[in-house]
Amino acid sequence: MPIAGKTKTLSPEEAAVAFRIASSSSIATIAFLLWDICITVDQEVELIWSQPFSFANVLYLIVRYLPIVLQISILPIGSTEPEGLTFSHRECLIWQLYQLVATMLLFMAVEYILLLRVDALYGGCRPIRWIIRCLYFVEVTCMIVGISVSAHGFLFDARCGVTDTPSTAVIFGVVTPVFQTLLFALTFYKFAQAVKEGWGRTPLTVLLMRDGTWAFFIIEALLAANGILNFVTDYPYSSLMFCWLLSGFSFVVCHLHPSKLDQRNNP
């Protein structure tokens, strides 16, 4: 995620190697996402484009296509080092905010899709529905506040590499794992309750628990890896996981889209 990371002075040779690695990583994530889109386009046509347009479909389109648009748009600056090209602090701040806002929009869509799955697991239970939606609102509010408060605390080098990050920016990186953990805990609790009551082997319950589990651990692993790289390595190495995070979210959540529940639950 572009909210952290440090920059140290690199020799021209070191900088060339670093940006070559970052560029290769970014191109690899774009290729991976394009591959996933291609192999699932038949399902997308059947479950999204052939159905009445809905809010869930809007979420799908955001999660599916925003990451690749964002990655392609940041590739020329984020993963290359144009010779002789420098940027002002204001330009770098706009560049940073663009990435942060787009990432926040992606996270919001991802979280809401996962929220809908928990809602389905609890059969639309009104208290659970209101609780998770209120917590979702709190999460979104925290992300917005985190970005707003931190915006003018970022420092950049001439290539828009982040040289200093305000401590308040950590809000952006904490609320998502916390909300993810809550959703997984609710999923696991319902599954344990279902097993105890003897209906834990129903197709929908098994599907939601199985997919929810691998999705949770992949998302948490991506968030953790991105955070570790941001805080222990220097730019541009610190940004290596950012594009993988975007692609990973798209891959995971698009395979869990609510529109697929009925089809995958039926023989």
UniProtKB/TrEMBL annotation:
Q: Which residues are listed as membrane-spanning? A: 17-37, 58-77, 97-118, 130-149, 169-192, 213-231, 237-256
Domain DUF6533 spans what residues? 26-69
Instruction: Write down the InterPro entries for this protein, in alphabetical order.
Output: DUF6533
This protein's UniProt keywords: Membrane, Transmembrane, Transmembrane helix
Q: What is this protein called?
A: DUF6533 domain-containing protein
